[in-house]
Amino acid sequence: MFQMPRARALASAIPGALLCAGLPLSAIAAEPAAEFAVSPAQMQSLGVTVRKLDQPAAIAGLASPARVVLPPNQDIMVSAPVDGVIDRLLINPQDVVKTGQPLLRIASPAYGDLQLKLMEADSRAKLARQTMEREKQLLAEGIIPGRRVQEAQAAQAGADAAVRQAEAALRLAGADAASARKAAANGSLDDAITVRARSDGLVASLDAKLGQRVKEADPLLRIANLRELWLEVQVAAGTAVPRNAEITVPGRDVSASAMSVGSLVGEGQTQTLRARVTKGVDKLRPGEVVQARVPFAAAGGGWGLPLASVTYQDDKAYVFVRSTKGFVAVPVTVVSSAGQALQVHGNLKSGQEVAVTSVIALKSAWLGMGGGE
């Protein structure tokens, strides 16, 4: 991952630059000193810049392919409520629809049968109520025994239940409560039913055709509710991603929150990471493939630093931390890497400043002040 011979070649060419910057080079010793002096003027001459440590954090990984998908409860399939023939289409593909908006109309004798059953159940319920009232009156006059009233009450309860069942069948078919009451009260039958949208969304697909004969439960169209979207990111098998870690889409003002990593490993030795889009939902469309940058986690947390901020000496990794005198070489352990970023463990604290550029020059100054390779 790191080109040590090239780094050492660069280091050997630095002493001249250090002398020009005013840094003295002393005799070579066995071990370099931890702290060495570098003035602000020398830092500027060498092009050394520092970054202040904030808190341990994951590092942004390489961009991975991700597909924009709908959550299961946001992808709504509209199916035929009854057998019939589609006699009117009221929407087109990619139309934006609102809850309750008419989508299409189905001419259906089966829908008429459902209304007829409700009418018959309602008539029986009315008769049962009249019978019970009459029985109560006869009981009060002492003409009939109490058992007759109990039987009338049971008959009325059964008739009322049949009405509720017939109303539920109509509602399941797509009729609203007002239409069901109208059919029961007026005895008027509709020969067609209008299918309406049950949520806001986008008409993602339209399979129904005008004049098509459909069976109950046949798929007619799909409505995509774009209020929430997910990203399905393909990450290398075994990748540890912190829950709720922020995932970004390079080049777009879009971010997502990591939810879970699937347990199955695909043929490409990848696993599927699901993330909920928290920003920029309106900039994505279901089915679209984008590049997503996923942060890598390290056990126990770690400090995220640029690749160029870490140098190696005797197979040990170091970073240079700003001190009152100059810099201190602090040993660190690299726990993960991706692209131009590293995550390290070490004796580092929030608020410290770490050199992130011209680290080779600082290494030469460090070795020159206290020792060599």
TrEMBL record:
Domain CzcB-like C-terminal circularly permuted SH3-like: 310-363
GO MF: transition metal ion binding
Listed name of the protein: HlyD family efflux transporter periplasmic adaptor subunit
Species this chain originates from: Pelomonas aquatica
Domain (CusB-like barrel-sandwich hybrid): residue spans on this chain: 77-224
Superkingdom of the organism of origin: Bacteria
Keyword Translocase: no
Signal peptide: 1-29
InterPro entries found in the cross-reference section: BSH_CusB, CzcB_C, MFP_Cation_Efflux
Cellular component, GO, one term: outer membrane-bounded periplasmic space
Biological process terms in GO annotation: copper ion export; plasma membrane copper ion transport
Keyword annotations of the record: Signal, Transport
